[in-house]
From TrEMBL:
Lineage: Eukaryota, Metazoa, Ecdysozoa, Arthropoda, Hexapoda
InterPro entries in alphabetical order: Reeler_dom (IPR002861)
Domain Reelin: 1-88
Pfam families linked to this entry: Reeler
Source organism superkingdom: Eukaryota
Name this polypeptide is given: Reelin domain-containing protein
Length: 88
């Protein structure tokens, strides 16, 4: 599995899943803070052996309004070693 890279954002937390690999990310805005988030930027490093990847997400607006199993389009991973950005 790939790994998310830490960013200097106090609202972003990275989690090990499986242990030892930061492959889960949580961007948390405290309810009632007045902050609205329309996008989140993450950096992810793919493992060497992967040619395509799909990201799965969960979005929570309120306790009773949320979306689970939100799937990205299938993304092709290049072995060129260059930086690549994709908006999902």
């Amino acid at each position: 599995s790939g790994q998310f890279l830490p960013l200097e954002d106090p609202l972003l937390n990275l989690y090990d899943c499986p242990p030892g690999v930061q492959s889960a990310a949580k961007y948390e805005v405290v309810y009632g803070s007045g902050q609205n988030v329309s996008s989140v930027t993450l950096q992810w490093v793919a493992p060497d052996h992967v040619s395509t990847v799909v990201f799965w997400s969960t979005f929570v607006r309120t306790f009773s309004e949320f979306w689970v199993d939100v799937k990205s389009a299938e993304l092709e991973i290049s072995a060129s070693g260059s930086n690549y950005a994709k908006t999902l």
